What does this fold into?
Amino acid sequence: MGIQERILEILVSNKPGVLARVAGVFGRLGYNIESLCVAETISPEISRITSITNADADFIEKVKKQLGRLVDVIEVTEQLPGQSAQREMILIGMTLNQKNRQETLQTIGMFDCKIISMRNNYCIIQVAGSREEVETVISFLKPLGIDKIARTGILALQQTKK
Amino acid sequence: MMETTGADILVNTLKDEEVDVIFGYPGANSLPIHDSLLKSQIRHYLVRHEQAAAHAADGYARATGKVGVCLATSGPGATNLVTGIATAYMDSTPLVVLTGQVTTSLLGSDAFQETDIIGITMPITKHSYLVNDPCDIGSILKEAFDIAKSGRPGPVLVDLPRDIMAAKCALGDTKDTPSRVKSQPREDQYDEQLRKIASYLNRAERPVLLIGGGVKLAQACNGLARLIEKGNIPFVSTMMGIGSVTASNGFNLGFIGTHGNELANRIVHDSDFILTIGARFSDRSTSIVEEFAPLATIAQIDIDASSIGKVVKANISLVCDIREALAGLIPLVEKKNRREWLDRIKREKTACQNTAMDECGPVGPFIRNVQTALPEATTIVTDVGLNQIWALRSWQAKAPRSVITPGGLGTMGFSLPAAMGVQVGAPDRAVVVFSGDGGFFMNIQELVTVTCYQIPLKIVVFNNGNLGMIRQIQDLFYGARFCDIELGTSKVDLVAIAKGFGIEADRVPVDDAGAGIQRMATSEGPFLLEVMVPPDNYVYPIIPPGKSNIDMISGRQG
It folds into this structure.
C-alpha cells in the first residue's frame, strides 16, 4: 500500500502563527500528525519542526510541495529510514504500592531511567533513548500501572551533513 | 519633530508600491488609515459592502496586472471580505488586503468588532501578518506586495491594530528588513526537460496545447502565440485561459471541460501529446481524471511546483516562469505542417457543426450583437452560471485581459463589483457585465457606488427568473424535480430598480434586443439592460456528473 511512517524535518521562521500554518497543511489534506517536536535551532530566528505522519509516497510529495509554498517555510526534508538518528524523552507518572514497587524499581535500574520526583508514593520517571528503548520500558511498566505519560515526540537529525 | 505614525508609514509605502487606488469601507478600527489616506493622492473608492471591495480590487488587478488593494475595518468588515479573498486565491490574483483590528491590548478578549481574521483566512491567503510595531509596517507591506505578485500570485492579508496605526515611530527607527521573496533558481533539470518537451512536440502526431490562466499571469501571451505559429500546434484553453490567444486564431479549438465546447473535448481525447501551460487540471477541466486524454503523454509547465502532478500525472514537467520557459522552448521547436492532424481536426470541426451540440440558444447571437455594437477595446466581466458559459462561448476574446471570470471559486455576485474595479483600472476600455438575475442581486447595492462615481459600466442582466444553471442540472439529472430555484426576479421590476439607483435602464426580450443594445452602446454613463430569457434556455453540451469529458450530452436523455 505504500503507507508508512514518514518523518518530515521542516525549517521555519520562528514567528507566531507559523506552526498553525504548517499544521493547517496537514489538516486540510485530512492527515494526522502522529508526533510533533518544535523548537529554536542554533539560529534563534529559525525553528526546526520534526513531524511524523503515516502516509504513502504520493501524499508526502504533495505535502512537501504545499509546505514549500508557505512563505515562512525555509526547507522541507524527508528523513529516510536508516539515515537519521532518532530519540525521544518521556515522563511517566506512577503510584508505587506494595504490589508494584519492587518490579518498578528493578525496571528503572535495568533501563537506566531516573526517578526525578517522588511525592506521597507518586513518582515521575524520566526515560530517554531510542524509540525502541522507550517503547520497551513502557511495555515493562504498563502492567505495573502507569498513570500518565508525557512524551516529547520523536526528535530526529540526519546523520550526514547536507 | 521627525516622527510619523504607523498609518502614515503605511500610506507612504503604498505610494512607493505605486498604488493609485484602494477599494474600501471604513470602520472605527480602520479610521487612522483613512485619515492618513486623505493626505495622499491615492483615490479611495467607497463601496457599499466589503465583499465588493475585495471583488473590485480583484477586478482591478485582473484588468491591469497590478496588485489590487482593498481596505476594511475589523470584525464584520474583515469577515465580509472572506468570499472575495477566496475568489482571488483560487484564481491567483495578486491582492493586498488591509484590515483594521482592535487595539493590541484587547486582542483575544472578544472585543467589540474583533475577529481573528488571520486565523479565518489562513487557508485562503498566500500569507498574512499581524503588525505590532509601527516601525515594522514599511518592511511588512513591501514584503506583502512582493509575495502577492511573485511566483504564483495570490492574496496577502495585513492586519492592522488601531493603536499601532496611531502610534508614533521616529523616522530613524523604521525597520528595513529585506523582503524574503527571492527569485526562484532554475531547477537542475531545466535544460533537459525543455529538450524533452521540444522533442515530444516535434515527434507527436496529434499534439495539443492546453492553456491555463497562468499564461496571462506570466505576461507570456506573445510567446505563446509565437509557439503556436511556429509549431502549427492546435490549442484548447481552460476557462481561465480564455483570451490568452485571440479567439479568432485559426488553431483555437475552444475550451475544455464540464461546460466546454464539443470540439475541444473531442480533440483532447484523441491527442497523443498535451503540453499544458499554466493550467492546474481543475476537476472542471478534467472531469474524470482516469479517463482524461487517455492516449496522451502529458507535459506540464507551471511556476508552482505543487500544481504539477497534483491531479493528472505529468510525464514531463518543468517548474519555471512561463515566459522564460516559452522563450527557451520556441527555438527548439521545429516548423511542421502537421497536415494530417490539422485535416483531421477540420473534419471533426465539421462533424461537430453537424451534431450542433454547441448551443447557447438565442443568447449566443444576442452576445455577438452586443460585441458588434461596442468598441473593439471592450472587456467583459461575467458572473457565474448560465450567463457565464453563454458569455465565454459567444464572446470573441481579442486581448488577454479582456475576458474576466471567477472560474476557480465560481462566486456569484462577482461581476458587478469586479467590473467596477476593471473600469477604474482601465478607464479607456468599454466594460460589459454579463450577469444572471441570481448573481446580480447578491451585490446589487453596488449600483449606488456605480452611480456615485458615474462608472460607465454596460450591465447586461439575463433575467430568467431562476437560478438557471441549477435549473438545468435539476432538469437533466434530478428528473426535473425543481426546487429552491425560483428567484422571483421576474416579478420584480429591475429597470425601475436601476432607475431608482440613478442608472439608465431598459428591458428587452433576448430575441429582439437590437434597440436595447443600441441604447446601451450609445449611453454615456452607466446603463443596465435587462434581457428576458425563457427559463428553459440552457447551455450545451454539458457533462453529466460523474462522467468524463467525452460523455457530453446535448439535451435531456430519455
Summary: Helices of chain A lie at 18-28, 57-69, 101-110, 131-145.
